[in-house]
Design brief:
Keywords: Membrane, Transmembrane, Transmembrane helix. The protein is built from 8 helices and no strands. With 257 residues, it is an all-alpha fold.
Length: 257
């Protein structure tokens, strides 16, 4: 076994599989969490489970399973447009537990719900599937979907930061309470890893469309791209693990401040 094969194929597979299992397991525990706001817990649990299932899709793609069983590509487990929305709503409810959802909040779910319905429909009705699978102009599974992903993620992190700053101004304190400190770290880490994913995705687009280089066929690039999402998922999962361990402490700190 070559070192390159080990580093850029088997290592990413192991990390992707581990992050998938961890995200789904910890996400499920959030629905059993008794401390904190149940809505915030459910939103973060949904985020981790959706992220883990999306990682499962990437894992099957990376290992070439779709080439052997093409129908698996259309399993309704691809939730890229759900992730930033669920993170934003989790942060919003965590900072303002008294907030009640309004009709206007439905706008956040237009693309996520449409993406889910898209995959459910093409899974149940194979005649709707396109032979090439992904195609550029699809807003749910293709080039346009990736563009939305790269725009929506930073936008919702910025929206979350705005609520965090507002909460901090309302508290009028120089030092951040523990709850706000953890949320800020969550958002900073998420933005960093999203930027890394964006750089790789944009490089792939430029290389393919302007230099006629298929970077996805390069083993090192495929490994790096898979790890960029894996690191993001691991960051979200690690934060969730911390909250599960110290949830009561975070909640108590939030009430005291």
């Amino acid at each position: 076994m070559s070192t390159t094969r080990l580093l850029f194929f088997y290592l990413p597979i192991g990390l992707m599989a581990a992050s998938t299992l961890a995200a789904i397991a910890i996400g499920g525990l959030f629905f059993l969490k008794s401390s904190g706001d149940r809505r915030a817990n459910g939103l973060y649990g949904g985020l981790l489970i959706a992220g883990g299932l999306t990682q499962l899709h990437f894992l099957m793609l990376f290992t070439g399973m779709f080439d052997q069983r093409p129908a698996l590509e259309f399993l309704p487990i691809y939730f890229t447009l759900w992730l930033p929305v669920l993170l934003f709503l989790h942060v919003k409810i965590s900072l303002y537990p008294s907030y009640r959802f309004r009709i206007g909040d439905l706008k956040h779910f237009i693309f996520p719900v449409a993406q889910l319905l898209f995959f459910v429909s093409i899974w149940l009705m194979p005649s709707f599937r396109r032979p090439e699978g992904r195609y550029f102009y699809s807003p749910f599974y293709g080039g346009l979907e990736q563009a939305l992903y790269l725009i929506v993620w930073p936008a919702y992190i910025v929206f979350s930061y705005q609520y965090l700053r507002r909460k901090r101004r309302q508290l009028g304190r120089r030092t951040l309470p523990r709850l706000l400190w953890y949320i800020r770290k969550l958002l900073k880490g998420s933005m960093l890893f999203v930027i890394a994913y964006a750089i790789l995705a944009i490089s792939d687009f430029i290389g393919f469309n302007y230099f006629f280089v298929d970077m996805r066929s390069q083993e090192w690039y495929a490994g790096a791209q898979s790890l960029s999402y894996t690191v993001l998922l691991m960051w979200l999962t690690t934060y969730g693990f911390q909250v599960l361990l110290w949830g009561r402490r975070l909640l108590r700190a939030g009430h005291e401040n």
